[in-house]
Known about the structure:
Belongs to the L-aspartate dehydrogenase family. The chain is α/β, with parallel strands linked by helices.
Amino acid sequence: MLKIGIVGCGAIATFISKAIARKKVSNAKVVAYYDKNRHKAEKLSKITNADVCDSIDELVKKDIDLVVEAASIKAVEEVATKALSNNKDVLVMSVGAFVDKELFLKLYNLAKDKGRKIYLPSGAIAGIDAIKSLTFGKIEEVVLKTTKPVEGLKEALKDKGIDADAIKEPTVVFEGDVFDAIKQFPSNINVSVMLSIASEFPAKVIIVADPNAKTNNHEIFVKSSIGTLKVLIENVPCEENPKTSALAAYSAIRIIKDISEPIKIGT
Length: 267
Ligand SMILES: NC(=O)C1=CN([C@@H]2O[C@H](COP(=O)(O)OP(=O)(O)OC[C@H]3O[C@@H](n4cnc5c(N)ncnc54)[C@H](O)[C@@H]3O)[C@@H](O)[C@H]2O)C=CC1
Ligand SMILES: O=C([O-])CC(=O)C(=O)O
């Protein structure tokens, strides 16, 4: 039985908790939660009967195998460092944190020293399996075009001084590299960092705010000497947090299932 601790008890943690409680993953159980808002952890503990912790330190000292970070980019360094130092594997949802190469190397080396694993789920995009394989050839171009309903981009647009309510037609609100994309849209474009890590190539990113969109769409283009990949995924947003696609949560659930079972399907 894979024992899990979850840091961050929002939309993704809710999906994971329900999937485990409903036995969609039968060889795993949630043992502990921590959220800076204790009330959110208490809500999820009612689903799984797991303990509610008062700190990350308390959670990583529990008898668990895997710590799931589903909180924020800012939380990743502390959660992953403490999990790995306490001999736990860690699954990171806020992959955008790894745009910081120093942090990536620090956690990579810590995991290596400790003999532990860092899991980065495909999240809200598809095609990571093929993109990883394409790195054995020469990658020439990586582009991500993300279109989201205006509502899902509202917070980030406000921070950029853009009035989301004034957007009446599909509008490009960002065009640039992955580094600026994740800085300006930290809760919307973790997928661009995932794509760049998988392809080992900095992605060009275009973000469109569409007042008529009902889904979070990600169009991926990767040109390489091995082949050209084009993927379009139209994701249903989570009710609890429309910025986040349900697929992102299900990709975490799928990794948990893969870790807990004797067979792993796909790359
Ligand atoms: N890799 C991917 O494809 C995707 C990644 N994400 C990222 O996954 C993370 C979780 O997403 P959601 O569940 O939708 O977010 P959410 O906003 O619904 O929930 C996050 C929870 O974490 C808590 N939290 C934030 N910082 C914390 C900290 N330092 N310590 C403890 N708790 C903390 C909040 O109180 C909240 O309850 C976010 O960073 C999000 O941007 C989201 C979608 C796709
Ligand atoms: O869930 C999505 O569609 C993508 C997302 O929010 C992210 O990558 O941060």
